Amino acid sequence: MLSGLMLRDAIISGANHISNQRQIVDALNVFPVPDGDTGTNMSMTISAARRELERAGTSVTVSETANIAAAALLRGARGNSGVILSLLFRGFSKGLNGKEQANAADVCNALSMGVEAAYKAVMKPTEGTILTVARAASEKAKEALKATPDIGINPLWQVILSAAAKALQETPEILPVLKKAGVVDAGGQGLLFIFEGMGSVFFDGKMIPSSEQTEKPHRNPILDDDFRNAAGAFDGEITFSYCTEFIVNKTNEKEPIKLRAYLESIGDSVVVVDDEDIIKCHVHTDNPGNALQEALTFGSLTSIKIENMREQHAAQQESVRREIAVREARQKDAGQLAYMPVDPSIEYGFVAVAAGEGIHQLFRDLGVNQVVSGGQTMNPSTNDILKAIHATPAKTVFVLPNNKNIIMAAEQTVKLADRSVYVLPTKTIPQGLSAMLAFDADVTMGENQLAMTKALERVGTGQVTFAARDSDFDGYKIRKGEILALENGKLAFTDKDLTKACVKLTRSLVRAYRDCSFISIIYGENVSEELAAKVESAIRAKAPNNVEVALIRGGQPVYYFIISVE
Q: Which ranges constitute the DSSP H helices of 175-233?
């Protein structure tokens, strides 16, 4: 028989195991865009259950354990994979409701109810995913129980593990995109890790311990490419003050190696590349004038750039300090969201999910009451969104997820909130902004739902980012660091030039939305004002004459530019 304590320890062990292995699961993501990733979302989701179960102590029944876990998973759910995981455990808890202990038949029935709940909650279930792995495990468990009615928990769980592992290995045969990439489904792998962690308790009575992993941020190729590493990316003490770059148009037969030798005598980080006509040079030195004077003996100079690295370093450090302060303040604010009872005089309120101080302010200016920090790299939990809803004292609260991987988590708040909640299916920041612009306080709820939904559907969104990993995706051979252009969430093309990619993407959006009259360019945290202005100018030059173009500082992570047409 399965006791409450054994189930408690099993779920904690499962949470530890996926937490330990989350980077392996993250690496299975086929889509090369840097994102929150499946392993991280599933780990954070079930870790919410681990915390509550550890607080619950050891004197718990099977029913109490399953209910505690399900409630915590629901509130802690992050991303689509996390929501599906929470739904599996919610159904599981219903199957064990009221039971002090459970036998194999109870566990089999509970797993079946969990799978049924997960499938029902997904509008268009996709096979070859976590759903398939869970269903296959449940079906094999039923077959084993039918063949051996008195089967024990341990042999039943072994059947579940074997079936889940087999179904996982078959996911590439169901989803061609997985087969092409040579990986299995990430969500399915995450679920198998959880099942394995639970099995460690069932089989050996031992919980898998948690081992902390250090997560490395996705590399930003614009700020951290190979040449800039050689040309002045510095973390420690700065030996020389000036980063000096120039091109020599050769006018004589002097050997470039002599220029290299001279530059090495007055500085470091020397790069000298030449062909038949030019010599391209880079050096860190305290005497840029001497470098230029010597270079003149080899020919005429062009493309001269001299930058004070000490000033750059100080500015960079100040920028980092400001960003840390902003994030700390944001986290503090999130933790201090006070519950606000419904004010009968306030009909409507708004909660939006967004990342970037500039974008936060845009939503506030449009009347959003609470902005939940989150987006592609940090999916907020259902509870994060619920707290924001409960801090909005309106009878009806509109929620704008602004990311397709957050919609399901937001939808879970509808049943949890103590006031009316309506989740608009906004998948991008521009869709959320347009929906807010369409709101009219003088019309009915139904009219606003219709108007805001129509408004978001009229928006075309382009996103420009970088490839976080090598990938063979959707017919594209993608290399880590390449520029990726996404059109309405789908990979449109890759490029090596950021400005050209932005122009090409905008032109494609304009062709798709022929009647558009407005183009918005929202630039991110790693884009300088100069680069943003350059992109704006290039887009203006190619935009139709009757289309207005606006440049906005969004400060968002991950995406260099978010471009919308409407």
A: 176-181, 186-204, 226-230
- The type of residue at 179 is K
Residue 234: pLDDT band with limits 50, 70, 90: very low
The closest alpha carbon to 130, from 93, 87, 70, belongs to 87
33 pLDDT tier (thresholds 50, 70, 90): low
Q: How far is the CA of 135 from the CAs of 77, 117, 118, 166, 395, in angstroms?
A: 20, 11, 10, 12, 39
At position 559, the amino acid (one-letter code) is: Y
Q: Span 139-145, mean pLDDT?
A: 95
Mutual angle of helices 153-174 and 186-204, in 10-degree steps:
170
Separation between Cα atoms, residue 79 and residue 82, nearest integer Å: 5
Quote the CA–CA distance of 104 and 102 in Å, as a whole number.
7
- Going from the C-alpha of 353 to that of each of 163, 423, 496, the distances in angstroms are 38, 12, 31
Contact (Cβ atoms closer than 8 angstroms) between residue 417 and residue 386: yes
Please give the sequence-ordered ranges of beta strands (E in DSSP) within 384-434, or none if there are none. Answer: 396-400, 420-423
Taking the C-alpha atoms of residue 199 and residue 182, their distance in angstroms, rounded to an integer, is 27
Q: Is the pLDDT confidence value at 248 over 80?
A: yes
Contacts of 565 (CB under 8 A, 6+ apart): 459, 460, 462, 506, 509, 510, 513, 516, 518, 519, 520, 547
For the sheet with 242-250, list strands across it: 267-274, 278-285, 242-250, 299-308
406-427 confidence digits (pLDDT tens): 999 999 999 999 999 999 999 9
**Residue 179: how many CA atoms within 13 Å on its side-chain side?**
8
Question: What is the average per-residue pLDDT within 310-328?
Answer: 59
* Antiparallel, parallel or unpaired: β 460-466 and 483-487: antiparallel
H-helix segments, 392-497:
407-411, 413-416, 429-438, 445-457
Q: Which helix (H) or strand (E) holds 350?
A: strand 348-354
Tokens of 41: 């979302």
Q: Quick one: which of 136, 125, 52, 62 has its CA closest to 92? A: 62
